[in-house]
Structure formats: C-alpha cells, structure tokens
Write a structure and sequence with these properties.
Elements: H1 8-14, H2 21-32, E1 35-39, H3 46-57, E2 67-70, H4 74-87, E3 93-96, H5 102-109, E4 115-118, H6 120-129, E5 139-143, H7 145-150, H8 154-162, E6 169-174, E7 191-194, H9 201-204, E8 206-213, H10 219-229, E9 234-237, H11 241-253, E10 258-261, H12 267-278, E11 284-287, E12 302-305, H13 312-319, E13 329-336, E14 366-371, H14 381-390, E15 399-404, E16 409-414, H15 418-425, E17 429-430, E18 433-434, E19 437-439
Parallel strand pairs: 1-6, 1-7, 2-4, 2-5, 3-4, 5-6, 8-13, 9-11, 9-12, 10-11, 12-13
Antiparallel strand pairs: 14-16, 14-19, 15-16, 17-18
Helix pairs in contact: 2-3, 6-8
C-alpha cells in the first residue's frame, strides 16, 4: 500500500505536532478507496481527518469545484471552512448555507472554488438557479450524514448527487456507528473505518454525574448547580427551543451570564451568541440539540442535561462537546425525583449532592464589541489589535479573543474599559475607513 506523507507546514499552520490514529488511517484510506465510511466520536478530529487527504487529491490544473462537502448545519459548514483556511493550502474554498446572502454566494461561485462546503438546502437552491457547476466534481463528502437525514435533507441530497456526473470518490463521515445508507448515495461496498468503539481519551476523560432535583421544576436545582460549579464554561441542553429560552431568561434574572441558542434564531444572532460563548463573555449557554454537533467551541468544562434526549445517539453527541481531544470534562444529568430513567443509560451515574446557597459565580470580565468590517475589507486581527491599542489605549491583557469574519468582526475587551473605549474609537478610522463599532448585543 502506498504511503502518503503529511505536510509538516500544514500541521504547523494548524498548531498541531502530530495526528491521532484515526486521522492517520483516514488520510491513507480516503486517498486509496473510492467508497469510505469514517466513524469516530465527536471531538476526535474528523474534520481534519478528511480535509488533509482532500488537499492531496486536489489538482491545480483543474478549474472549478473538485470536492463538495455537504453538512447539515451552517455552523458545521463554517467550522470546516475555518479549518481549511488555517491549513493555508492555496486552494480556494467557499461556503453556501441558509441565512447567508445568496447574491454574495453567486458572486463567489462565478469564480468557482476547488472546495465547496454547503448545507443540502442551499446547494439544492443554487442548482435550481443554475449558479453552480459540478462538471469537474470528483469527490463527495457527506459529513454528519445521519444528522442530515434526520433533519429531512434526503430529497435535497438525492437531487444533488444525481447531478455529480464525474463523481469518483464518496466519503461518509459520522459519529454514529449504526448507519443505514440509502441507495441514492451510490455507496455499495465501502471501506469501513470505525473508531467509535475504541478507547479514546475523549471517552476516558469524561466523568458522568447525576444531580437530583427535589422539585419537578428543575430550574432552581440548575441554578444551585451552576453556583456550585462557579464560573466554568458550561453548556446546558434542553429538548425544546422554548425551554432553552425560558431557562436562559430565568438564569439571567438571577444574575448569571447566560444566553440561549437554537435553530430559530437569525443567523447573525446565532453567530453573536457563539462568539460570546467562545470568548468568555457568556459563561452559560442553554441550547437545543443544534449545539450537540459541529460547533467549534473549545474548552467547554461542563455539560448539563437539563432534559435528557430521547436516544443514546443524541446523549453521546451532547457529551462529546466536553472532554475533547486531551482535555477532561464532566456531564451532569439533572433529574427530578420521580423522573423516569431511560434504558439507554446503564448503569446510571452516581448521584452527587450539591451544596446549596453557594455564592453567585463571578461575572465575566469580558464583553464583546462588534465591528462592521471583516476579511473582505482587508481587516486582520493585527489591524484590530493595533487600532484598539493605539486609538483605544488598551493594553494586551485588556483584549481577548478576536474573530474576523467576511464582513464583520468581534472582539472581547475588558468590561471595565468598554464605555470609555467606545467613546474614544467611535469616530476614528481603521485603515483609512470608518466602521460601525458597538457592543454586540
């Protein structure tokens, strides 16, 4: 079997010294096999596992889209794009997803990328508009394939795959081992790489605990648990969007840095919410199962199941948001006394007693500001740092995480400095242009 080398430069660009075994095997077999089923736990690095070999398979001499990655959510699409851009391969990438400007996507597609990442619904839309050309697309990757099916994208995916005339390689990626592959995918005898049952550090590092609420209304028990945990990044799962909003609003009224996240939010609001959680401006995020897969949120310390999911697959995905790679983490199951324990959790985790009347966690020292310019305006992280330091008089430890997107940027700054900062920079120019700068609400 031919051995494929991995570019040290790309690993350096990613800040990675070495790959795990799943990524090493995927790099080999994705290049060798025409049909591959890659199964690995959430948080094990599947995105990089399929992007590294794709880089080796792309051809500088071929114009147009060579590889299509279909993924169920816009958040996952953007995460894949970010990893590819960090790799700095020299090959163009674009993303297409609902909530993004169609006109901007059409403009981007007029000079097609080598790698296109998209949600099935939006890619379907472009095909019906005839704004996308798959004449040279030889590689198809279906990421989180089972999730795409459960979200109702089967017809869209079938339509898209039928319009890939020269397809040579089909890769399915999932964190779930029990998969049924529909006929329309065109996979008959795939090579199967299954790492879901191996003893990964992500599993070993996860601690499960149960917390019992005296009341059927578990909101007060949740509040006590969060006070007990302190100011640690915590993701709280609910089954319904409405419940997520109600719980987050209740926590806010009690003085906690909490926000909610679900699929009905506008795209800009989803992005702001995730930015605030990533940079520490928000400590507690109450979410639907949309947050269980594909979100790029490092360093989540705790998971809390305010409501348990209906099946073991979603339970596993939720828990996979913490204890990622080499880090540890804890998942708490919050149950009322009379609540039925699902059969898919066995044995049930040991109950822990939470000390009541703990003091409120410290509020975050960060607050996020919004800037109305981004990569398309030639703004970089260093431009923002220089602007905030020179014009806003901030020092290094008063500037937190910076995220630069296509047409906007977000920066965490010291909460104690933000009011004076906004006044100082409000009418100033960055790189010769004036941008709207305000607190991201």
């Amino acid at each position: 079997m031919k051995t494929y080398e991995i570019s040290p430069k790309i690993l350096s660009n990613l800040g990675i010294e070495s790959l795990n075994q799943m990524q090493i095997d995927a790099n080999q077999y994705i290049q060798d096999e025409k049909e591959l089923l890659l199964l690995a736990p959430t948080g094990s690095g599947k995105t990089l596992a399929f992007l590294l070999p794709i880089f080796n398979l792309l051809n500088n001499n071929i114009k147009g889209i060579q590889c299509l990655v279909l993924t169920p959510s816009r958040e996952l699409a953007l995460q894949i794009e970010q990893v590819w851009k960090k790799m700095a391969t020299g090959f163009k990438v674009n993303t297409c997803y609902g909530g993004h400007s169609v006109s901007i996507e059409i403009q981007n597609l007029s000079e097609p990328p080598a790698l296109l990442i998209g949600t099935p619904g939006r890619v379907f839309d472009h095909l019906t508009r005839h704004t996308i050309d798959f004449t040279n697309t030889k590689i198809l990757i279906l990421d989180e394939f089972d999730k795409s099916l459960s979200m109702g994208f089967e017809e869209d995916m079938s339509y898209i795959i039928e319009r890939l005339p020269v397809l040579e390689k089909r890769i399915l990626v999932s964190a779930t081992s029990q998969l049924t592959i529909p006929e329309f995918v065109g996979i008959t005898r795939p090579k199967r790489l299954d790492f879901t049952r191996t003893e990964e550090k992500t599993t070993d590092a996860l601690i499960l605990k149960t917390v019992i609420s005296d009341s059927k209304d578990k909101t007060n028990a949740l509040f006590q648990l969060l006070c007990f945990l302190g100011a640690e990044s915590t993701l709280i799962f609910c089954n319904l969007r409405e419940t997520a909003e109600q719980v987050a609003n209740s926590l806010q009224k009690r003085g906690l840095d909490a926000a909610f996240f679900h699929g009905k939010l506008e795209q800009i609001d989803r992005e702001k919410t995730l930015v605030n959680f990533r940079n520490g401006s928000t400590t507690f995020l109450v979410a639907s199962d949309l947050a269980a897969r594909g979100l790029d949120i490092p360093d989540i310390k705790n998971i809390i199941h305010f409501e348990l999911p209906l099946n073991s697959v979603d339970f596993t995905h939720r828990n996979g948001r913490t204890a990622r790679m080499n880090a540890g983490g804890t998942a708490y199951i919050l149950m009322s006394k009379d609540e039925k324990r699902p059969s898919f959790i066995s044995p049930f985790p040991k109950e822990v007693k939470i000390t009541e009347n703990c003091k409120l966690p410290e509020t975050s020292k960060w607050i996020t500001i919004y800037i109305s310019g981004g990569k398309k305006d030639k703004i970089s992280k260093m431009d923002i740092v220089g602007f905030l330091a020179k014009v806003g008089n901030l020092v290094k430890n008063e500037i937190g995480l910076i995220e630069v997107m296509d047409f906007m940027s977000f920066v965490a700054v010291s909460k104690t400095k933000v009011e004076k900062l906004i006044i100082k920079i409000k009418n100033e120019k960055m790189k010769g242009k004036k941008y709207k700068i305000e607190i991201a609400r």
